[in-house]
Amino acid sequence: MDFLTIIQVLDSTIRLATPLLLACLAGLYSERAGIFDIGLEGKMLAAAFFSAAVAAVSGSVWLGLLAGIAASLALSGLHGLASITFRGNQLISGVAINFLAAGMTVLIAQDWFKQGGRTPSLFDGGRFTPVDFPFAESLAGVPILGPIYSELLSGHSILVYVAFLAVPATWWILFRTRFGLRLRAVGENPAAVDTAGVSVVGLRYAAVAICGLLCGIAGAYLATALQAGFVKDMTAGRGFIALAALIFAKWRPWHAMWACLLFGLLQAIALRFQNIELGGFTIPVQAMDALPYILTVVILAGFVGKAIPPRAGGEPYVKER
Amino acid sequence: MTIMKSLLGAAASLALTAGAALAEPALIFDLGGKFDKSFNEAAHNGASRWAEETGGSYREIELQSEAQREQALRRFAEAGANPVITMGFAMADPLSSVAADYPDTKFVAVDVTWLDAPNIRQIGFAEHEGSYLVGMMAAMASKSGTVGFVGGMDIPLIRHFGCGYAQGAKAVNPDVTIVANMTGTTPAAWNDPVKGSELTKAQISQGADVIYAAAGGTGVGVLQTAADEGILSIGVDSNQNHLHPGKVLTSMLKRVDVAVYDAMKAGENLETGVFNMGLAEEGVGYALDDNNAPLVSDDMKAAVDKARQDIIDGNLSVVSYYENDSCPAIKF
Hints:
The complex is a heterodimer. By secondary structure, chain A is mainly alpha-helical. Chain A has 13 helices and four strands.
């Protein structure tokens, strides 16, 4: 494996890790506030569809992004309504959102565009184009650092940089601001937050809304940056891998980034080398595909430290029993 | 009010029995969905053509999960639909158990050729022959000497496509490098354009400059990325040349539409048995239209048409992957 191949695999890793990272951070906010969210997949899918649909009709990718975020926020609101206001089961609400998104996107797409649950292909202006760093072209010839700068770091869509900047931002918000402290507290011990006179319901809604925002960006990235349009079920389980990454990262932002990059790397390697020969053994591509889930099970089983979810996670808050 | 109700009820039941007596044909789409721009859409086109020409109507269902296969078959058979047309190799197992229960109903199985039942019309396509032709074109159009293949779900049928393609490419240029990838091993592999794009990028970085996608909805991503990156791609099943005019070299046509059209036209008097649609029967071929005419040189066309004739005459044989579950030209 030569240097250029490694760069290309890492480049692919960044592209594949970005939707995972956005969804993973989305889940992080929600779950840190005590709202389990297995509807990440559905929200991404809805955002992917609405961003592609609006971008196709309006010709503006930014309007598309806004529409995607709005769709994802609407589903988040639904999840919040069911699990915060009406104290329903958060898992069931999440599953319902996944089903709703899978069905509604195709139905609406068929009604609007008559292309069988797809949106028309997006052309220039309807898609996020790669952002080239200054001097990327001229520095490409520099050994080692040149390719890293021009191939690996430069040339991604703006949403990729947004995703990676969201990691320190998340860390700062959660661990260095008053809002973050309260948000974490509401996931550990909502009664204490309530006693302090802070609204549990308000905080949880805020967390769920941030979750919707990030899922919206993730979906828009899939449909308008990586692809040029929506295809049914195009998230293909990425929301669930993001959840696995979240557990793998034990609900911490920096670890979430590394977990998503690891899972992205596994995918990139599996895509680049179908069957890997390793000292006489052949690792089939299926094993690579399954590895994120296997790693998550290993973590959950407690082999690599304990993964302790937020203590009040999954429980609706009731003031008085 | 009550009179109205019973009148309506009577009318409704009359309509129902009338429908059953006519024995409409029924069409069961596979998981890719009716508008996959590929395999299932071809079936839909064939059925629509029949409906337009005859003014008849047909029933249809798009399967959403594996569990619905047998259920859908039984529902249509119970409702008196005849013939019941099914798409895809995965219908073989449900068909083998259901067909015996409805001896008076005729079934059509596209992509299935190995069942033993008197009331099934089984239609197999010689995909390897069509893929051989587009493989030749790929190798002739390639400047780098490397061509790519992106399959959908890793099943023998898709390897069968890839095998014919590799043989065709090698026939033109024995030194050609063929990069072959499968998208996955679950049905999700038919609908993952993001993965299709990444595979395409990976193949481009390995030098491929013509990529053949036999991957359903995933192929949409392959064709898109190929067009974005300025290389050529090859579509599959339906004519996909129009998706990116001037950037899709050709499409391997699999005339599922003809098979479905013929079956619907024959109606209840359908002939059953195993039918093989190859180059000679025009069941497979390559697409040439205004969108790709500038890409196909006269030499290319002459060579491909000659190979086509040789295959039909029996002077050239393309090895089928099914023969011994392996391919002489490529290792998967």
